[in-house]
Specification:
The protein has about 80 residues and is α+β, with helices and mostly antiparallel strands. It has helices at about 15-20, 55-65; strands spanning about 1-5, 25, 35, 40, 45-50, 70-75. The structure holds iron/sulfur cluster (SF4).
Length: about 80
């Protein structure tokens, strides 16, 4: 299982995460920041658990390439 966290307030809206992992991220038309799909917001940390390990690689790419370093991916 993957646990992905996005500290959304610090997103600068560069669009990188959506480019590498469109299954997981969408840019909001409202505020221009990334939306972590199906995530729950807990005090600004948006978290989602995913049971599809095939999404590990694209999420690691997003984590590595995010210029704000606000995406964290954990494998459990
Ligand atoms: S890569 Fe990071 S800074 Fe860029 S849109 Fe995604 S979450 Fe925001």
């Amino acid at each position: 299982m993957l646990i992905i966290t996005l500290q959304r307030a610090k997103c600068i809206g560069c669009n990188y995460c959506q480019e590498v992992a469109p299954e997981q991220y969408r840019m909001s038309k409202k505020d221009g920041k990334a939306v972590l799909l199906h995530a729950r917001d807990r005090n600004g940390f948006h978290t989602v658990k995913i049971h599809d390990d095939e999404l590990l690689e694209v999420n690691l790419k997003a984590e590595e390439g995010c210029p704000s370093k606000i995406i964290k991916v954990k494998l459990q």
